[in-house]
Amino acid sequence: MQTVLITGGTGFLGRHLAASLRRDHHVFLGGRNSNQNAMAREATGCPVLPLDVTNMESVRDAFREVRPDVVIHAAAMKYVDFAEKFPLDCIDINVTGSQNVARVAMDSNVAVVVGISTDKAAPPIMNTYGLSKALMERMFCSLNGKTKSKFCCVRFGNLAWSTGSVLPIWKKMHDDTGVIGSTGPEMRRLICSVDDAVQLVRTAIERADTLGGKVISRRMKAAQIEDLLNTWTRHKGGRWERIAARPGDRCDEALIGDIEVPFTAAAEHDGVEYYVISFDEKAKHPIASGLSSKNAERLSEREMLDIIDNPVE
Question: Domain of 105?
Answer without folding.
Answer: 3-157+193-217
